[in-house]
Each structure stands twice: as structure tokens, then as C-alpha cells.
Design goal:
Number of strands: 14
Strand content: 25-35%
Helix content: 25-40%
Radius of gyration: 17 Å
Keywords: Lyase
Number of helices: 6
EC number: 4.2.1.80
Number of domains: 1
CATH class: Alpha Beta
CATH superfamily: Fumarylacetoacetase-like, C-terminal domain
Largest sheet: 9 strands, mixed
CATH topology: Fumarylacetoacetate hydrolase, domain 2
Enzyme class: lyase
Pfam families: FAA_hydrolase
Organism: Bradyrhizobium japonicum
Length: 259
């Protein structure tokens, strides 16, 4: 069995068992190999997570790059069973160590095919149908994530564990995304805030990065897919009983409770 599949199987086993992952016996050598493992992992996980419905982009803000120690964006995936509506009550026990991030999510109205690359922020912005205020759910599935290294974190979908979406806001009525202020409220208390400009200077820059990243692998984005563009705030780690609310000016609010 090749090294890519071995790594994918080790990660899939840990995810199915909700067991913290220690260092892999055969970790991916670099980020390109990390994405190969990620694709192999998806094939193993599909029966339990449902079809791929979109992507998440990690490390798009300075606060997150500093926190994770990776100076550029990284991609992960969003699966059907991980997408919830605002007001969702989710069991904290379904995660190893659950955390949340405050995000602007986009829904695409048309395909962004690999052959159209290179993509610019303006170009991908035209392909957006609507935006959602979003809580990205992340899961620290590691014995110690700080020692795992970017290739392994990428292989395991870069902490992705789903999302909670607020009401869609059509592109025609969306405010200047750069100026959108996001507030993270846990148990009624504001704990953090950021703005759309914190996400690579504009969330569409993150979307363009993802489209170009996928195009380099010969893949495209598709109409109807969801993209979480990156966190406006540093990850907030939660405990059972926590109630979370994200308020994004002009985009609305989204709430979840971890029981």
C-alpha cells in the first residue's frame, strides 16, 4: 500500500473513532503531498460524511496565520452532513475538541472551471450568487496540533468539521465586504471581532486563491458550491453547554449551541 493511502487510512480511522491523532508513521513530505492524502481521505470518508458540497479556506487572516504558524492559505473540504442551519444544537461529544470561527461564506451561481485560470478577485466575485454569515466548526483532532506540520494538517482537511449557516444574502444587496465587521459572541459575551478586510484584504481574494489552487490540480469550483472564505477572528475553543452567535454587519447573524 502506498504511503499516500497509508496516511489517509490512519487519518480516516482516527476520525471515525474520534480519537486524537498522534504523528503519522508516514506523514506527507510537503503540502502538495498533503493535498494528495486529503483527496484519498475523502474517498474513505464519503460514506460517513456525504457528498462534497464545497470548501473551506484556512489561514487567510494575519491572526490565523500567526496562530497556526503558516504564512499562506490552506484548503479543506465541506461535506453535506457537516452543514447545519442557524439555531442548530450539536453534540460537543461528536468532536475531539470543538472550536468555532466567524466567517463570510459564499454560494456560487456558476462554475469556475480550471481552464479559466488564473482567477482574480473581481472575476470570482462575479460568480457569487449569495453570501451567508457563517460559523465554521473546526475540530482539533490531534494529540498536539502545533507539532503536526502543515502537510499533515492539510491532509486532514485543515481542522474542517462543518459549518452553521445563517440566511442567504443575495449579492445585489450585500454591503462592502471589506468593511463588514464580525463579532464572535460566546454565552452572551463578545469575545472577539474582526473585519472582512482581515481575510486576505477581501474575502474574494481568498475565493480567487482557492479557484487557482484547485485549477492547478485540474479541478474547478461548481455552481451551488459553498466556500467558507476564512476566519475574521482567532479560533474559539468551546466546551459542552456553550452557545455561540456570530454577528456580521449587513449580513446578519448565525447561532449554534454545543450540548
Amino acid at each position: 500500500m502506498d504511503k499516500i493511502l497509508k496516511a489517509a487510512k490512519a487519518i480516516a480511522l482516527a476520525r471515525r473513532n474520534r480519537a486524537p491523532l498522534a504523528a503519522l508513521d508516514h506523514p506527507p513530505a510537503d503540502e502538495a503531498e498533503g493535498y494528495q492524502v486529503q483527496r484519498a481521505l475523502h474517498d474513505l470518508l464519503l460514506p460517513q460524511v456525504g457528498p462534497l458540497v464545497g470548501y473551506k479556506i484556512g489561514c487567510t487572516s494575519q491572526v490565523m496565520q500567526d496562530y497556526i504558524g503558516i504564512p499562506h492559505p490552506c484548503g479543506g473540504s465541506v461535506f453535506q452532513k457537516g452543514v447545519h442551519e442557524s439555531g442548530a444544537k450539536l453534540a460537543a461529544a461528536d468532536y475531539v475538541r470543538v472550536g468555532v470561527e466567524c466567517e463570510i461564506a459564499v454560494r456560487l451561481k456558476r462554475d469556475l472551471a480550471a481552464g479559466e485560470a488564473p482567477f482574480t478577485a473581481e472575476w470570482v466575485g462575479e460568480a457569487v450568487e449569495a453570501y451567508h454569515p457563517a460559523i465554521e466548526i473546526v475540530d482539533d483532532r490531534y494529540v498536539k496540533w502545533e507539532t503536526m506540520g502543515a502537510p499533515t494538517l492539510i491532509a486532514d482537511d485543515f481542522f474542517a468539521a462543518g459549518c452553521v449557516l445563517g440566511e442567504a444574502v443575495p449579492r445585489s444587496s450585500v454591503p462592502d465586504l471589506k468593511a463588514v465587521k464580525g463579532r464572535a459572541i460566546v454565552n452572551g459575551e463578545e469575545v472577539s471581532h474582526g473585519t472582512g478586510a482581515d481575510v486576505l484584504d477581501h474575502p474574494h481574494n481568498a475565493l480567487a486563491w482557492l479557484a487557482n489552487h484547485l485549477a492547478a490540480e485540474g479541478k474547478g469550483l461548481h455552481a451551488g458550491q459553498l466556500v467558507l472564505t476564512g476566519s475574521l477572528v482567532k479560533t474559539l475553543w468551546l466546551k459542552a453547554g456553550d452557545k455561540v452567535r456570530m454577528e456580521l454587519d449587513g449580513l446578519g447573524t448565525v447561532e449554534a449551541e454545543f450540548t
